[in-house]
């Protein structure tokens, strides 16, 4: 218990710098004597209240408006029962309240509780709670996910919240860095980058790690895009310059997506959703850039036409999925109202694909779609050998899924060179069979893929590939 009390003393010391803003009190409660001793910094020890504790607490638990102060009730019951440790943080009527204590056994028998209570105006203490060690990321000099998300939500929920930008920062190809140079080197890169972010952001925001190499920045005092752009540009360039010329074959860049509250969304989730889609768009456009959501430019990418839902960036809304599937079944499979060009264009556009390739009759025939149109080139049939080495990679559902070239397993490494030359970074292959014999494949490809293929993409595209298979062989 000595360690717990020492840790609390350290936290109390950290709070001293806030004494000009808050009412901070250290207290001691003797359970057996039912005596509460208050010790305020700069003042002598004094008996704050001598039992019964129930009578003292009653006035705080039952508020003047007749309602029950549940938070204080929790504090009182924990104090009275002498639980080993307790901590609590909440807001009430514009005040920030924090309480923490630990219980120790007295040498002469019985229990005594040591704790601290802090009260102050919320506006004056918006960052105080985030000074705790438990709010810090274990490795980086910034908040952890729980703390930064809590901070962002609290910030946006304040009355008359000024324009606040949520920026999602992501290192480009970071997994490739880990896989190539090792996780220890990857950790060093993250530490270096976190230092860059803290230096550039400074007093203009609060920074926290939300997962892996993804970092959330919540701005402070940035009123419009004119103020935001120079900061994002400086951050992007600083990251790019950090490792230039230091390691052969290794360049470090970042991508950022951002949106503003309340301009672009009425809640934390809405603004984060748009910022995440802007990050995805930055990746799609080639990485090493930032994109600030601008309704005039990006609204159509956020909201599907004739749909009340906001689809994930780069993917169709549920309405479009159903529409495409119905289109393929009714028009393509029956071949009464669709050509390859029209069908491929609908699929490619809806799923943001860079290429659709169909190779069949053991590589003797095929056709390829790109946003520029449908082609029939000999090199499209011979770029990948249809041998046992390839066919052994397909699973029981006749699928071979590549989330990114950096994710290739040892038995898939032979695909690295042909896919790279083709400009493909991620792909879904579907193996087509004729009477149980492998006759070809369908490839749906992307030049960029930030995350894993979604389950509904796998289901939809494999079903579409099955329709192609039926159309060709039945």
Textual characterization of the structure:
The chain is α+β, with helices and mostly antiparallel strands and 474 residues long. The protein folds into three domains: 2-124, 2-Layer Sandwich (Beta-Lactamase); 136-302, 2-Layer Sandwich (Alpha-Beta Plaits), CATH 3.30.70.270; 318-473, 2-Layer Sandwich (Beta-Lactamase). The protein has helices spanning 2-15, 53-61, 70-81, 145-157, 174-181, 183-201, 225-242, 268-284, 295-302, 318-332, 340-350, 379-382, 388-391, 416-422, 455-473, and strands at 22-30, 35-40, 46-50, 85-92, 95-105, 111-121, 164-171, 205-211, 214-219, 254-261, 289-292, 355-360, 365-370, 373-375, 399-402, 426-434, 437-446. The strands form three sheets. A six-stranded antiparallel sheet has the order 3-2-1-6-5-4, sandwiched between helices. Strands 14-13-12-17-16-15 form a six-stranded antiparallel sheet, with helices on one face. A five-stranded mixed sheet has the order 8-9-7-10-11, with helices on both faces. A hairpin with a 4-residue loop joins strand 12 and strand 13 (365-370). Helix 10 packs antiparallel against helix 11 (340-350). The chain is elongated, with a radius of gyration of 30 Å. Residues 14-22 and 304-322 have low confidence and may be disordered.
- Strand composition percent: 25-35%
What's the domain count? 3
The appropriate CATH architecture of the largest domain is: 2-Layer Sandwich
Q: How large is the radius of gyration?
A: 30 Å
Question: What is the CATH class designation of the largest domain?
Answer: Alpha Beta
> What is the CATH H-level superfamily of the largest domain?
Reverse transcriptase/Diguanylate cyclase domain
N- to C-terminal distance: 75 Å
The CATH topology annotation of the largest domain reads as: Alpha-Beta Plaits
**How much helix is in the residues?**
25-40%
Q: In one word, what is the shape?
A: elongated
Compute the number of helices: 15
Q: How many strands?
A: 17
Main sheet strand line-up: 3-2-1-6-5-4
Largest sheet entry: 6 strands, antiparallel
Low-pLDDT windows of residues:
14-22, 304-322
Mean pLDDT: 78
Structural class based on helices, strands and sheet pairing: alpha+beta
């Amino acid at each position: 218990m000595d360690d717990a009390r020492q840790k609390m003393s350290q936290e109390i010391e950290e709070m001293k710098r806030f004494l000009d803003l808050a009412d901070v009190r250290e207290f001691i409660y003797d359970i057996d004597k039912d005596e509460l001793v208050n010790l305020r910094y700069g003042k002598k020890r004094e008996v704050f209240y001598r039992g019964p504790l129930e009578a003292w607490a009653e006035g705080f638990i039952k508020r003047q408006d007749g309602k029950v102060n549940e938070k204080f009730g929790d504090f009182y019951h924990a104090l009275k029962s002498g639980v080993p440790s307790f901590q609590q943080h909440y807001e009430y009527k514009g005040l920030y309240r924090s309480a923490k204590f630990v219980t120790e056994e007295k040498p002469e028998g019985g229990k005594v509780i040591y704790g601290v209570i802090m009260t102050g105006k919320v506006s004056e203490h918006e960052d105080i709670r985030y000074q705790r060690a438990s709010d810090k990321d274990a490795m980086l000099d910034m908040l952890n996910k729980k703390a930064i998300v809590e901070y962002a939500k609290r910030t946006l929920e304040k009355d008359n919240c000024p324009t606040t930008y949520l920026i999602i920062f992501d290192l480009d190809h970071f997994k490739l860095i880990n896989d190539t140079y090792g996780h220890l080197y990857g950790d060093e890169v993250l530490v270096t980058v976190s230092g860059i972010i803290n230096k550039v952001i400074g007093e203009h925001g609060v920074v926290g790690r939300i997962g892996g190499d993804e970092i959330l920045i919540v701005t402070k005092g940035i009123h419009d895009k004119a103020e935001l752009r120079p900061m994002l540009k400086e951050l992007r360039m600083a990251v790019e310059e950090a490792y230039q010329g230091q390691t052969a074959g290794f360049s470090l860049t970042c991508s950022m997506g951002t949106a503003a509250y309340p301009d672009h969304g009425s809640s934390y989730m809405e603004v984060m959703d748009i910022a995440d889609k802007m990050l995805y768009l930055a990746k799609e456009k080639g990485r090493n850039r930032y994109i600030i959501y601008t309704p005039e430019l990006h609204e159509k990418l956020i909201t599907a036409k004739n749909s009340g839902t906001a689809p994930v960036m780069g993917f169709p809304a549920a309405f479009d999925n159903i529409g495409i599937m119905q289109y393929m079944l009714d028009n393509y499979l029956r071949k009464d109202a669709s050509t390859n060009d029209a069908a491929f264009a609908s699929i490619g556009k809806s799923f943001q694909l860079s290429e659709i390739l169909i190779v069949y009759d053991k590589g003797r025939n095929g056709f390829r779609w790109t946003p520029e149109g449908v082609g029939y080139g000999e090199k499209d049939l011979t770029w990948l050998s249809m041998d046992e080495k390839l066919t052994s990679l397909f699973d029981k559902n006749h699928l071979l899924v590549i989330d990114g070239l950096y994710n290739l397993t040892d038995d898939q490494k032979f695909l690295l060179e042909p896919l790279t030359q083709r400009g493909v970074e991620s792909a879904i292959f579907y193996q087509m069979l004729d009477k149980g014999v492998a006759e070809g494949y369908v490839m749906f490809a992307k030049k960029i893929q930030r995350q894993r293929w979604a389950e509904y993409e796998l289901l939809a595209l494999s079903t579409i590939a099955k329709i192609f298979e039926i159309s060709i062989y039945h």
